[in-house]
Each structure stands twice: as structure tokens, then as C-alpha cells.
Design a protein that fits this description.
Blueprint lengths: L1 H26 L3 H34 L4
Helix pairs in contact: 1-2
């Protein structure tokens, strides 16, 4: 349970950092770099989510294939 909460905090932290970087770059007139930073942040969060979904499916598989 605590691991799930930590993943949410990590995703929120990445979102805050990416939003700050995006805002700074956009105000500097570097819209292309700001968009690139947002895309990189999205990909990092997507990797976290895919890893979590993979763990979820492994847990479901272990529950239904229990050979006790």
C-alpha cells in the first residue's frame, strides 16, 4: 500500500517539476523546448504507469493461478 502512495507522490512531483520547467522555458521564448520538456515528462510518467499496470497484472495472475 505504501508503495502505491509513493508512486502517486513521484508522479505528482514530476508533474510539478515539468510544469515549472515548461513555464520558465515558455516565458524565455523557448516554446519548442517547453513542449519537448512536457513530452519528456509525459513519457516518464507513462513509464511509471506502465510499470504499475504490469505489477497489477502479475498480482492478478498469481491470484488466479494459485496452485496451493
Amino acid at each position: 500500500m505504501y508503495q502505491d502512495a509513493s508512486i502517486l507522490f513521484q508522479i505528482a512531483g514530476i508533474g510539478i517539476i515539468v510544469a515549472m520547467i515548461h513555464t520558465i522555458l515558455k516565458q524565455m521564448g523557448k516554446e519548442e523546448y517547453a513542449q519537448f520538456a512536457s513530452i519528456v515528462g509525459f513519457i516518464i510518467v507513462l513509464l511509471f504507469v506502465i510499470n504499475g499496470i504490469s505489477d497489477l497484472f502479475q498480482e492478478i495472475k498469481s491470484v488466479f493461478l494459485y496452485q496451493g
